[in-house]
Write a structure and sequence with these properties.
This is ATPase. With 177 residues, the chain is of the alpha/beta class. The protein contains six helices and five strands, in the order E-H-E-H-E-H-E-H-H-E-H. Strands 2-3-1-4-5 form a five-stranded parallel sheet, sandwiched between helices.
Amino acid sequence: MRLAREVVDERTSVLLLGGRSGVGKTSVASAVHDLLVARDVAHAVVEGDALDLAHPAPWEHGVAEANLADVWRRYRALGHRRLVYTNTVSVLQAHALAAALGDRPHVTSVLLTASDATARERLGRREHGASYDAHVARSDAAAGRLAEQVGPDVHRIPTDGRTPAEVAAEVVALTGW
């Protein structure tokens, strides 16, 4: 039972997981999900890459943000207030993503990091041939861009030599969930 003077913040709380390809964003998001389920914490997970996966790529048209707004509106209608969102550059787009969610959300931005060797080894598990080469090139470019452009308000968490569950525990601790 809530006390009359208690103020409950009903705003959205979003965890943005960013990082180069092969850093473990999807694996960590899945481990965050498992951890929150075990704690019976209501939440939703959205894989940002799926919101604008098309050819030609529609990035400049804000399709991902518009789709996120639609998806989140439906989750909010069900009572959800916590969102885990993964995308390579999500930590660079925190303001646009927060605007898409509405209600001035609490944002925790986390840049997952990994060495070139670790990223390449992980990419090698899922990509082969020309696809592997293209993913490595994009991953290396993203790592450089993120290292250069991510601000001091973004938490940096290394994933080298760690399990997704270990990283997830650290990430969730940052959110206060």
